[in-house]
Amino acid sequence: MARKVLVLGEVRDGSLRNVSFEAVAAGKTASEGGEVVGVLIGDSVSALANEMIHYGADRVVTVEDEKLKQYTPDGYSQALMAVIDSERPEGLIFGHTALGKDLAPKIAAKLESGLISDVTSLEEAGGNLVFTRPIYSGKAFEKKIVTDGLLFATIRPNNIAPLEKDESRTGDVASVAAEIKDLRTIIKEVVRKASEGVDLSEAKVIIAGGRGVKSEEGFEPLKELASLLNGAVGASRGACDADYCDYSLQIGQTGKVVTPDLYIACGISGAIQHLAGMSNSKVIVAINKDPEANIFKVADYGIVGDLFEVVPLLTEEFKKL
Ligand code: FAD
């Protein structure tokens, strides 16, 4: 059934996050030959509309207001509800990001709709659109279909490939007026933590350290390798709890969920809660001195050895390429 699907683009620091383009690709599948309408919300976002069209949106609607400069649940839901009222979509796709996880249930409740969250793939099978999502911390997957009402899903970043960018694609860009009022939270200032290099949740290469790294300084060889491969440094909760690094680096069930092309786990045992955040990475390399470590069960390549010897050797070899 061809349907109109609204896809929320996510803007950070004046640029669209990759998950926006992945959501457009999911929206294309969900539209089943219907229309994909990108939605951009912010204080000044219309300049980004064409990029959504280049990645496959048929057209884009924007809601611009200085009160929307920063995400707030009230502001964004008022903006989005104005778009939904004017567009009357049959489908909605958001990224399963901090923003999407906060906003989607609120919108679903307002629309009295169901919501399929954290979708890792979406395909047509047997005349149905089938949504796949992990359950039990990634130990199993469930498949869902929508039998009635709005088709509303959030998609896990780095799982659904964006469509090829085509700069010759064109489409309408229109603005929708929304009254943004009675905000219960106002963000006065955003103080960013100094971050080194690539954003962990969007990195294609992640070098992650666990308790085996043994100290804050122990992360230095991992940082060197990450910077050489234009990647990011991540960590297990064991390393964060031991104060070797900041909790913003934690990967896993209670940390970030990542799916890079290459994940190198250094001195990480592979507890189920850690695997929940990284086991969908495309290629997993594990370095651990314990040959029985659980991490080897999910690794494509395992190196049994001392990470303080292996990581510098890898760095030297990559430098030669
Ligand atoms: P360890 O289990 O201590 O493993 C260290 C590993 O390093 C060992 O395998 C050892 O052989 C190896 N090693 C030591 N020295 C070297 C060396 N020189 N060279 C090579 N290898 C070496 N954990 C997460 O990671 N993310 C989460 O989000 C998360 N959420 C949790 C939520 C709940 C509710 C609970 C209960 C736990 C959660 N945990 C999480 C914790 C999880 O259960 C583990 O305790 C944690 O992942 C262990 O971290 P680790 O692998 O770094 O440490």
- Percent in strands: 25-35%
Order of strands across the main sheet: 7-11-6-1-4-5-12
Q: What is the averaged pLDDT score?
A: 95
Order of helices and strands: EEEHEHEHEHEEEEEEEHEHEHEEH
Distance between the termini: 50 Å
Q: So how many helices?
A: 8
* Share of helix, binned: 25-40%
Biggest sheet overview: 7 strands, parallel
Protein name: Electron transfer flavoprotein subunit alpha
Keywords: Electron transport, FAD, Flavoprotein, Transport
GO molecular function, one term: flavin adenine dinucleotide binding
InterPro entries: DHS-like_NAD/FAD-binding_dom (IPR029035), ETF_a/b_N (IPR014730), ETF_a/FixB (IPR001308), ETF_alpha_N (IPR033947), ETF_asu_C (IPR014731), ETF_asu_C_CS (IPR018206), Rossmann-like_a/b/a_fold (IPR014729)
Commentary on this structure:
The protein is of the alpha/beta class. It is 26% helix and 26% strand. It has helices spanning 18-31, 49-54, 73-87, 98-111, 220-228, 237-241, 272-278, 307-320, and strands spanning 4-8, 11-12, 15-16, 35-42, 59-64, 91-95, 116-119, 121-125, 128-135, 140-144, 151-155, 173-175, 205-209, 232-235, 262-266, 283-288, 301-304. The strands form 4 sheets. The chain has a 7-stranded parallel sheet with strand order 7-11-6-1-4-5-12, sandwiched between helices. A 5-stranded parallel sheet has the order 14-13-15-16-17. Strands 8-9-10 form a 3-stranded antiparallel sheet, with helices on one face. It starts with a strand and ends with a helix. Flavin-adenine dinucleotide binds next to helix 6, helix 7, strand 16 and helix 8. This is Electron transfer flavoprotein subunit alpha. It holds the Pfam family ETF.
